[in-house]
Every structure is written in structure tokens, then in C-alpha cells.
Amino acid sequence: MKVFVDEDAGTGIPRALKLVKMPCEELVYPCQHPPIRFGTKDPVWIPWAGDNNYLALSNNHRILENPVEFELLVRHKLGAVFVDRGNYEVWRVLRMFMARWEWFEEIDRQPRPFVYLVGLTGAPVPYDLKRGVRPPRPYRAPGIVAPSSFD
Q1: Which of 26, 50, 80, 146 could in theory staple to 56 by disulfide, Cβ–Cβ 3.0 to 4.6 A?
Q2: Domain tally for the chain?
Q3: Can you give the pLDDT of all 151 residues of the chain as single tens digits?
Q4: DSSP for the chain?
Q5: Domain of residue 45, residue span
């Protein structure tokens, strides 16, 4: 399994996964070295990750609401898991990744493209790509915490 962690998830989680030697062929995240650098826009990394058969882990579920990015995800056959991190501590998110690692390996073997929405609790929810672009979620002012749509 080859894993790409989008910069929206931060660098702490992929660094920790590398440190504990999670079983995967490759673990790539934006850094200051190629192939993907910090600041790489979604329309650049989505085709790269899809074309290179990475399983993408991201907090940026707004990709599903952006027609251009959604089309790139489908056209380049990306397998993606969008994580609702909310305001959780990084260690809780890391624990969720580690606890579900076998599930990540399992879905990585299924035909692409695919998308799952995952919260820290509850079952992962597949997103039906045939539905097309997801309607935008309402804007929330900074500091207002709404219940998770993934749990």
C-alpha cells in the first residue's frame, strides 16, 4: 500500500506513522523535498496521487464540493479517505489511523476511484461518486464547533 497524506492533515501524523514503521510500501506527505512540496495545490497533488496509485488521507473534504477537484479525483482514479479531525488532539487522530490500518489496507485493494468519510468514532461511510459533487456545507464562523457529519 502506498499512502499520501495531504498537508491539511499536518506533518505530525505521517511522521509518527513513519516512526512506528506502519506497514506500507511508501508514505508520502508534503515537505520541502519532491515529489510534493508544502503549498502544493489540490489540483496538482490529486492527479499525481491518483496516477501513482496512492491511497490519499486528507482532512480536506471540501474537495468533494469543488467541481474541478472532484472531476480530477474521478478522472485520475484516486482512492481517498477524508477524515473529520474536528478539534481533536493529534494523538487521537493518530490512534484512529493505527486502529484502522488493516481497513485502509483492505480498501486500498478495491477498484478506484473511491471515497470514504471517516470520523474518529463510528463506521467509515462510503461516498457514492455517482452522486457527483457534494453540495457545499454551510459556513461556520471560526471558533464555533458543530457536530461532526462523519460520526
Answers
A1: 80
A2: 1
A3: 999 999 888 788 899 999 999 999 999 988 867 788 888 899 999 999 999 999 999 989 899 999 999 999 999 999 999 988 667 788 888 999 999 999 999 999 999 999 999 998 878 999 999 999 998 877 655 555 555 554 4
A4: -EEEE-GGG-SHHHHHHHHTT-S-SEEE--BSSSSSBTT--HHHHHHHHHHTTPEEEES-GGGGG-HHHHHHHHHTT-EEEEE--TT--HHHHHHHHHHTHHHHHHHHTS-SSEEEEE-SSS--EE--GGG-SPPPPPP--TTPPPPPS--
A5: 2-131
